[in-house]
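Hey, quick one: can you model this chain's 3D structure?
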Amino acid sequence: MIKESESRLTFAVDLARSAGAKALEYFSAVGDLVIEQKGVQDLVSNADRDVEIHIREHIARHYPDDGIVGEEYENVEGTSGHVWVIDPIDGTANFVRGLPAWCVVLACVHDDAVKIGVIYEPCNGEMFSCAAGAGASLNGRKIRVATTSGLDDGSVGVGMNNRTDTDLVVRVIGALLARGGIFFRNASGALMLAYVASGRLIGYTETHMNAWDCLAGQLLVAEAGGRVEKQSADAMVVRGGRVVAATPQVFDELVALSDEAYGP
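Sure thing. Here's the predicted structure for all 264 residues.
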């Protein structure tokens, strides 16, 4: 099982790097992108679709019995019990406007748990990677969440989406500011979770995230010594859900703050 996990992690890192290189080619010619609007502040480009095809083809070639769940195309049913959950470009709104805050996201789920998580940020060449039980790394070097004394001791990533009331985001930011905290947002939930894992942010909260945006980052945070709300990975793949992740010192307070802001 350890060798299987190591093999899949190596594959995921290599695939994320090649997908990131392909995405960078599009990013360097961002003015030529074909962009569509799926919803409010919800964009997709030909780059998203082509990079996802690249990822799917490589998974099908190396792990033909695995399932695939991605943002842009239909799910692929597998027989191995392993499911790859992928986002070719998280932060498309940044990508299409030439902002260098986007990433390639790969997670592998098995037995209702995330086993592999990779987030690659090509513009800065940062590869965040982890396997369950083996710790988290940034470009091959181990990372840990920050050591904090409270919510006033660092910045908290705050996500938002077009599926929930914007008032909820206003509430959580207000509650955070009232506690002396600072909020951070770069329009890529996956990247912000990676920043929690690497100690740059002390926490992250969002009312609802799709599995392809959060599963890899949640495992990264957990493997870097942080805490994440307990969830069924299989259920997250089907319908997504709330995400709260933080350093051990502020996790309970961030959960309580999120409960207060978002309601039942």
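One thing worth noting: The first strand starts at residue 35 and ends at 39.
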